[in-house]
Amino acid sequence: MIVVLKNEIEQKLGISIQRRGDCQLLSDAVLTELGESINYNTIRRFFGVDKSSVIEPSKNTLNILSKFLGYASYNQFSKQVIQFGANQYQDNWYFVLNSQSTSEVINYLIYRRMKDVFFADVFIRTIRELLLMRRFADVDLIFRSKDLKLNKFSYSESIYVGNSIGILLRDVILEDEDYSLLLRNKLFIRHVLSIFVDYSSLNKGYGVFVTRAEQEKEFLSKNDALFFECLSALRHYLLFGKCKTKISINFSKLAAHPILIGRLAAIEILQCEEDEKKADVLNDLRAIFEAEKVRRIDYFYEVNIVALIMSDFNLIAALNKIQDAPHIRQHYQISHHQLNMILRFLNAISTSDRKKQTYIQQEIKKELWVTSYYDIFDLFYHIGLYHSSLNVAKKNAIMRRYMSISEKMVYPIFNKNYLISYFD
User: Which single residue of 268, 289, 314, 414 could bond 406 by disulfide (Cβ 3.0 to 4.6 Å)?
Assistant: First the structure.
């Protein structure tokens, strides 16, 4: 059974796993697709690349690799192979997908929705393939299908779906009519565009959706229009160092998800010139947060980002105080907490508290960062590493890594001087 599992994984990747680089490729693919970490050394042992090790794979390793193939667990993978043969599940899915019939694809997904509690995995793989095949009209129809009940996805499921599909939007270039098509699809916005908010490509890939949203405003809901307006304002700040026209909305009166409310507060703070006004905005947001029976740290996610960008340590200190004892209730909030750890790391550097720097740095775990925010997390983490290091050679190496991240993101604000003078 393990031999079959290995063959299926190699078939999916399109390579034979024989070298360390192949193992790292699989490790990265698993992290990108599942948000779960599996060390490349574990993969080396599993595929026999490390000839000196004969350790049996753990249950956890087998489960993660099975999930990578779209199964809930290794147990489910084994049962499927025994019942249908090694490739029946994959062959049936590929046969339907390549039929060029939208109705067949939708009916297949409806069937899986009714029969399979792990429907999200099949759904993700289908949408990713259709995007790569440039079948955007099919993607639109699938997201519009009422029988699929996509509006019943929990927020955690939306996070899983959005992050798995959204990463493709970095590289897939659409025609104008296809951008319009998907921007007019409320569930595509809800489950993909508003989840995988790609800070790495606000001026390319994902950013095209942001700029095109202005032209499609009449077709957007009020909250979706506000969402794209906030991203456009942030994009403008990152590119030109200043905000666009002020967004006129009282976020304290808005019925919306905490992340959108926090996003509006963040842009308002970005537009403030006086510390007192920033404090007023934060106090308004805090009042909403504290009025809830279940206090969600989601409110402060985007404000944390803006505080880092502005290197505003009064704001950072205030945010750290509010988030001193975070309540992590959903898996996606783990990444939110990691962002707060980066804030605390930089704040400890600003106060020259080396003991706290060391402790907090140990709590920062890159494998817990979401893909859409990974580069911006990494950028500020390297700013912290640069200023906490006492070794000249190490500082130079960190600077090179910082510049590499900056060049990848292509925002003029994140230049060499930004790194050096961050704490000035």
Answer: 414
Confidence at residue 86, expressed as pLDDT on a 0 to 100 scale: 47
**Calpha distance 129→195 (Å, rounded):** 19
Helix %, strand %, coil % of the chain (to 5): 70, 0, 30
Contact 69, 77 (CB under 8 A): yes
Tell me what pLDDT residue 387 has: 97
Under 8 Å between Cβ of 57 and 45: yes
pLDDT grade for 375, boundaries at 50, 70 and 90: very high
What is the C-alpha to C-alpha distance for residues 70 and 107, in angstroms, rounded to an integer? 19
Question: If you write DSSP's letter for every residue of 377-424 in order, what string do you get?
Answer: HHHHHHHHHHHH---HHHHHHHHHHHHHHHHHHT-TTSSHHHHHTTT-
The tokens 């949203």 sit on which residue? Answer: 213
The position carrying tokens 């574990």 is 42
Most distant CA pair in the chain: distance in Å?
67
Q: Do 198 and 233 form a contact (C-beta atoms < 8 A)?
A: no
Residue carrying the six token digits 């307006």: 229
Q: Which of 119, 213, 207 is nearest to 166 (CA)?
A: 207
